[in-house]
Design goal:
7-stranded mixed sheet; single chain; 5 helices; 9 strands; alpha/beta; 191 residues; Spore Coat Polysaccharide Biosynthesis Protein SpsA, Chain A
Length: 191
């Protein structure tokens, strides 16, 4: 099973307001990543979708699509708290499962790239990440064997430190464009 988690709980400090609700081409920023993940879930039988957000309107939108939605009241303490909230919401996870994380401020990611990440994983896979050329980014897929390490993350550091550890190689899947790896930190990026 592939468990996909949209991280939509950030505080948008550099943006100057809630960037996840800011419009991009007429739709709130968070909806682009949510739509890509939902499209993957609709076309595959091996997926679950969970949205972690401290914003009720984002949780409501996730539930309207049939996704699980959970609050992350400690998200201002760092990304690790949102990761933990999402993992705890999954319930039973088997060792052969995989967990994909996508930050909701990455609107140009495509469902095709997400599907390629899922397809790249096999029984011996530890992590799979998206890249364009030498630039490595997210989303990233983690083997459920790394669940204890993911739960132990602290502060504003994501799971990048778990990628490519000795004996645990990281597979790299190319995106269709470099733009897919871009996230939004400033209002002018939405122009």
């Amino acid at each position: 099973m592939n468990h996909m988690i949209l991280l939509a709980a950030g505080s948008s400090r550099r943006f100057g307001g809630n960037k996840l609700l800011a419009p991009l081409n007429g739709k709130p920023l968070y909806t682009w990543g949510l739509s890509a993940l939902n499209e993957v879930c609709r076309t595959r039988k091996d997926c679950t979708l969970t949205v972690v957000s401290r914003y009720p309107e984002i949780r409501d939108a996730a539930r309207a699509l049939g996704a699980k939605a959970v609050d992350s009241p400690d998200s201002e303490k760092g990304q690790a708290y949102s990761i933990r909230s999402g993992l705890q919401a999954l319930g039973r996870v088997e060792e052969k499962d995989f967990i994909l994380f996508l930050p909701a401020d990455q609107p140009w990611i495509t469902s095709q790239t997400i599907s390629r990440l899922l397809d790249a994983a096999g029984p011996d896979t530890w992590t799979v990440t998206a890249a364009f050329g030498e630039r490595v980014g997210t989303p990233t897929l983690f083997s459920a064997r790394l669940l204890p390490d993911l739960m132990a993350l602290e502060g504003d550091r994501g799971g990048r430190k778990l990628m490519g550890r000795p004996g645990q190689p990281c597979l790299v899947v190319p995106t269709g464009s470099e733009r897919e790896l871009d996230d939004v930190d400033y209002p002018e990026q939405l122009q």
